[in-house]
Design goal:
Elements (H helix, E strand, L loop, with lengths): L3 E6 L3 H16 L3 E2 L8 E6 L4 H20 L4 E6 H6 L2 H5 L5 E3 L7 H11 L12 H10 L7 H8 L5 E5 L1 E2 L10 H5 L3 E2 L2 H13 L4 E5 L21 H10 L6 E5 L8 H9 L6 E3 L7 H7 L5 H14 L4 E8 L6 H14 L3 E6 L17 H24 L5 E9 L7 E4 L5 E4 L10 E9 L3 E8 L2
Parallel strand pairs: 1-2, 1-3, 3-4, 4-5, 6-9, 9-10, 11-12, 12-13, 16-18
Antiparallel strand pairs: 7-8, 14-15, 14-17, 15-16, 17-18
Helix pairs in contact: 1-7, 10-11, 11-13, 14-15
Length: 463
């Protein structure tokens, strides 16, 4: 009987994609995937170090497993991902019941590591976290959703088989002062174009309609080593988007997260011209204050950010934006905060991930005095959420009475008699299904009503 595995994922979509790739590799090696940790013989925690909260959640959960392992001593417990890369052997000191730890560049060794544990049940740790080109090539192969397992993996991680993640690159060269990513995922390493296109074609052959292209700084795809900003009329990412758009069967393309400093006119116009690119761009702002942006090491001003938004709106009707924002960065004055609120109101974001600053050990910002009181951080966070709530409510109300193109994802989690999907602007839309509907269908829905978070509508036709 084959051993059964369960992967618990924390953090970003890059981690979700790594979990998919890891699960595929384990399935191909003969292991069985289960949907509950209590049914597993192998528990793998794919961890995140970007936010302190995600790290604490993972450590807490893994700590609980100590009691489980006492009752089930043959249970194999592994930790992979950013926290594994960041803390390395320190995790064994904190959590001695862990069987193995693999950093972000060693995921391609996961199957061999699990096999060794299966045979020996011995403690092992990779003290060398390889970031060589050979490691990248190994990663490249495992990142493909192999045809025989694609449907099963999609159901385990996403609940439907209409969309899939495709990783374009690893790492980041930006070294923003608050961010741990370059230290745990290394420098930018882009996959070969043909490898990416091959994976996209395979996914299309499996019936995938929507791709989410991933990279810590996806707009820097294909940049030569050491390059931080685009050459005036060159954008390898724009060229890649054009090639993916040519693939039959792929109807929608999303991407995250691009750095504003990597947007030039070639990329902007490609987004405006390519119909398969979805009408929502995630464009991290972080702050609307130029002094704070400079302290963060972001490499652009609020005026430059707003100019990118202006150009994108001019070349693509109906485009919307989501963003990331940090409040309470060291030294943030009331004037700095108001600058952020002004940019939020000017852009009119459809969604925003707003975080209260917390220092990450090992980053430049952690060396600064965390001099903004927690109460002030919470107040500023609440004020920005209020701005976002008002904006999204206004946007959604304007959609009532319109017809939206919806990619069907599946049965609503709150009402089994309804289904849901997403618009090209990534808005969740709930509707009453018709006979024979399946995830991956693209349908037209007339919006009857809207809340701040969700659209509700009626199916107009089945085309």
């Amino acid at each position: 009987m084959s051993l059964r595995f369960f992967i618990k994922t924390y953090g970003c979509q890059m981690n979700e994609r790594d979990s998919e790739a890891s699960a595929t590799a384990l399935l191909n090696a003969g292991y069985e995937a289960v949907k509950s940790e209590k049914d597993a013989d192998i528990l793998i925690f794919n961890t995140c170090s970007v936010r302190d909260q995600a790290e604490r959640k993972a450590v807490g959960k893994i700590g609980i497993m100590k009691k489980i392992k006492r009752r089930k001593p043959d249970l194999i417990i592994g930790v992979v991902g950013c926290m594994a890369q960041n803390k390395k052997e320190k995790l064994f000191e904190e959590l001695p019941h862990i069987d193995f730890i693999l950093g972000t560049d060693q995921l391609h060794t996961l199957v061999d590591t699990v096999k060794r544990e299966e045979i020996a049940r011995a403690k092992c740790i990779k003290t060398e976290f390889d970031s060589s080109d050979d490691a990248l090539e190994g990663m490249d192969g495992h990142l493909i959703l192999y045809p025989e397992n694609g449907d099963e993996i999609s159901k385990i991680f996403k609940g439907n088989s209409s969309s899939a993640f495709v990783s374009l690159m690893r790492g980041c060269n930006r070294f923003c002062s608050y961010c741990i990513v370059p230290y745990v995922r290394g420098r930018e390493k882009s996959r070969k174009t043909e490898s990416i296109l091959q994976e996209c074609r395979m996914l299309a052959d499996k019936g995938i309609k929507e791709l989410m292209l991933l990279g810590q700084n996806v707009a820097a795809y294909g940049y030569p080593t050491g390059q931080l900003t685009p050459v005036r009329d060159e954008s390898p990412f724009a060229e890649l988007l054009k090639e993916i758009c040519k693939i039959d069967g792929i109807e929608r393309i999303r991407f995250t997260s691009p750095h504003p400093a990597c947007f030039n006119d070639k990329l902007i116009y490609a987004i405006g011209e390519l119909e398969k690119i979805c009408d929502n761009v995630h464009l991290p702002l972080q702050s609307g204050s130029n002094s704070i942006l400079d302290a963060m090491g972001r490499g652009y001003t609020s005026e430059e950010y707003l100019n990118i938004v202006k150009k994108l709106k001019a070349c693509r009707t109906g485009i919307t934006f989501s963003t990331d924002i940090i409040v309470g960065f060291p030294g943030e004055t009331e004037k700095d905060f108001e600058a952020t609120r002004n940019v939020m109101e000017t852009v009119g974001f459809d969604n925003a991930f707003i975080f209260k600053f917390s220092p990450r050990t090992g980053t430049k910002a952690a060396e600064k005095e965390d001099n903004i009181p927690q109460k002030v951080k919470e107040e500023r966070n609440a004020l920005l959420l209020k701005v976002l709530k008002k904006t999204t409510a206004e946007h959604n109300s304007r959609l009532v009475g319109t017809t939206q193109n919806i990619l069907v994802e599946g049965i609503s989690k709150r009402n089994s008699e309804r289904w849901y999907g997403r618009t090209t602007t990534n808005k969740v839309t709930v509707f009453t299904p018709y006979a024979g509907i399946t995830p991956g269908d693209i349908i037209n829905v007339t919006i009857d009503r809207a809340t701040e978070m969700t659209l509700f509508g009626s199916v107009l036709n089945k085309d």
